[in-house]
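[step 3/7] inverse_fold.run input=structure_tokens len=103
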């Protein structure tokens, strides 16, 4: 400014606000055909679950329709869900694992 007036402009923040990436749930879905023992075997093999936890998760899905197996980053959730579903498919069972974003 030529008349000596000072113009004050607020300093804008230069730090970009990074959103935390969303977490995803892997859901075990119940069906009428896959044997209980096979569901437990897949939970132990793919998700490294202990016998007792696998039994509990399997029974929850059996009774309620679905059960959350794990909550993790999207790429890991999708890879694990596909690996587990493919394992069942190869064995001839309709067992399904799905992923969905957490609230
Ligand atoms: N409902 C199946 C049965 O009675 C067992 C089962 C449990 C299948 C959980 C899928 O996600 C599942 N043989």
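[step 3/7] decode complete -> sequence:
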């Amino acid at each position: 400014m030529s008349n000596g007036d000072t113009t004050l402009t607020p300093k804008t923040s230069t730090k970009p606000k990074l959103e935390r990436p969303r977490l995803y749930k892997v859901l075990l879905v119940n069906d009428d055909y896959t044997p209980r023992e096979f569901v437990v075997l897949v939970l132990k093999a793919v998700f490294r679950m202990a016998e007792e936890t696998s039994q509990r998760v399997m029974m929850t899905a059996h009774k309620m329709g679905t059960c959350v197996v794990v909550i993790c980053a999207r790429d890991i959730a999708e890879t694990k869900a596909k690996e587990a579903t493919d394992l069942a498919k190869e064995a001839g069972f309709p067992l399904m694992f799905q992923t969905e974003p957490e609230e």
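[step 4/7] annotate
The chain has a mean pLDDT of 92.
The first strand starts at residue 23 and ends at 29.
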